[in-house]
Write a structure and sequence with these properties.
Blueprint: H1 7-10, E1 20-21, H2 29-50, E2 60-67, E3 71-78, H3 81-85, H4 93-105, E4 111-118, H5 126-138, H6 143-156, E5 161-168, E6 177-184, E7 193-204, E8 207-219
Parallel strand pairs: 1-2, 3-4
Antiparallel strand pairs: 2-3, 5-6, 5-8, 7-8
Helix pairs in contact: 2-4, 5-6
Length: 221
């Protein structure tokens, strides 16, 4: 039987880099890891609260963290940074977020720097796509329709292939099942194939559904 491995961890060092870059002594490693987790959670919650739209898509593709002795550099890759920066108090939001995170992680002797980067093809990124599908499922759209719409959006972003899988009590049925759909090539066995992946849990009124998305971006020679 084929064993499923996380495609990102499988490709580390080949086509995939780490989302957190820092060094720590073995006894301090767990603290650094929890700090990263806190920063990511806090940023996601803040964006969710302050986003200027009702579609439910936060648009955070990934949050990269780099730590030095005196500095923590956080880069937020967003598909729609306008949604966060528009409206009342928009431009000051980044500073506000910076102060909030600094208080939360209690970094006294280190400076925290948060930067926003816009990604060119938001729907070519699995996290944003999963949020889109989650929003559709919450609004009682049929899962097949949501999957097909998501695939259409990625095709416009110019990817080579995509696979979407939804598992759980789909459409409120008594028995949980797994449904999936694939378009184009998704070579999970090929290490030099750059594959983006995410798994996302969405709470519906019937229970929790799991969404998994694999996107085949490009093949390195």
């Amino acid at each position: 039987m084929g064993q499923k491995i996380n495609p990102l961890g499988f490709r580390l060092g080949a086509t995939q880099g780490h989302h957190s870059l820092w060094f720590a002594q073995p006894q301090n490693y767990s603290e650094g890891l929890q700090e990263d987790q806190k920063i990511r959670e806090w940023i996601k919650n803040y964006v969710q609260k302050n986003i200027q739209i009702s579609s439910g898509v936060e648009g955070i593709a990934c949050i990269k963290i780099q730590k030095r002795i005196d500095l923590i550099q956080v880069i937020i890759y967003m598909g729609f940074p306008k949604l966060l920066l528009e409206g009342k108090g928009g431009p000051r939001r980044i500073e506000e977020l910076q102060i909030d995170v600094q208080k939360e992680i209690n970094c006294v002797n280190r400076k925290l720097n948060i930067a926003l980067t816009r990604i060119t093809n938001p729907y070519g990124h699995p996290n944003i796509l999963a949020e889109f599908i989650a929003g559709q499922l919450k609004n009682r759209v049929s899962f097949r329709k949501a999957m097909k719409k998501a695939i259409e959006l990625t095709e416009q972003a110019g990817t080579k292939g995509i696979q979407v899988q939804i598992a759980g009590r789909i459409d409120g049925k008594e028995i949980a099942r797994v449904e999936w759909i694939r378009e184009g090539r998704v070579p999970l066995q090929t290490i030099r194939a750059k594959i983006d992946y995410c798994s996302y849990a969405v709470g519906t009124i019937y229970g929790v559904l799991g969404i998994k998305i694999w996107i085949f971006v490009d093949e390195e020679a």
